[in-house]
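TASK: fixed-backbone design
INPUT:
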């Protein structure tokens, strides 16, 4: 498995390369956007880890250009305080995100999960029961009916679907979808869940988005149960 790390900060690049090499990956590195894109266009990589702020060409521009010809999975490293980063990167075709400063164990888990998806030949459509999420067109379909989603609703549903069966605490949803710590105001999460439910769950069966009292939310098909 060969990875490309594009990061201009020497310390982070070295740290990433060392950790990923120890974990058994072959890693190439680039310290600026232009050579990063060149590597990606001329060599075969199983995954690219891209910093957003880079000299020469930023991570967004790289992924935008790369997507014209390649489907290489891309994991973005974003600054924690950049709220719109996730959404912007997603729109351009990034596959996942990690906010800096990140925990290496978390990074490794994301890398492995992206590689697994790639190996399974994952189509850009996620499916749970009769709910579909088209990652390219950024639309949901339920029982064949197209449902339009806002950027936040899309991010939220994408998170719930790609981690289906997992109970996601409100704080995790807040940090993943808004990149902000909403510990003090999880109403934002509840309100967004209500909007997504109204669009993709309320008029359909089986119910897929479930509230787990005191814990958070989970998206899964529960045969024989309906959502209260
Ligand atoms: Ca940087």
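OUTPUT:
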């Amino acid at each position: 498995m060969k990875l490309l790390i594009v990061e201009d900060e020497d310390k982070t690049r070295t740290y990433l390369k060392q950790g990923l090499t120890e974990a058994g990956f072959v890693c190439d590195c680039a310290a600026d956007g232009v050579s990063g894109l060149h590597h990606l266009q001329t060599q075969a990589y199983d995954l690219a880890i891209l910093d957003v702020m880079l000299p020469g060409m930023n991570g967004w521009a790289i992924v935008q250009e790369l997507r014209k010809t390649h489907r290489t999975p891309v994991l973005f490293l974003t600054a924690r305080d950049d709220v719109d980063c996730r959404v912007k990167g997603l729109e351009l075709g990034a596959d996942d995100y990690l906010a800096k400063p990140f925990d290496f164990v978390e990074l490794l888990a994301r890398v492995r999960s992206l590689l697994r998806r790639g190996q399974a030949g994952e189509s850009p459509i996620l499916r749970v029961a009769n709910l579909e999420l088209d990652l390219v067109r950024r639309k949901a379909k339920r029982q064949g009916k197209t449902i339009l989603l806002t950027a936040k609703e899309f991010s939220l549903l994408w998170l719930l679907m790609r981690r289906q069966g997992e109970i996601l605490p409100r704080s995790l949803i807040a940090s993943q979808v808004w990149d902000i710590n909403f510990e003090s105001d999880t109403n934002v999460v509840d309100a967004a869940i209500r909007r997504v439910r109204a669009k993709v769950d309320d008029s359909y069966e089986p119910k897929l988005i479930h509230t787990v009292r005191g814990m958070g939310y989970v998206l899964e098909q529960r045969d024989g149960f309906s959502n209260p």
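COMMENT: The chain has two domains: 2-118, 125-219.
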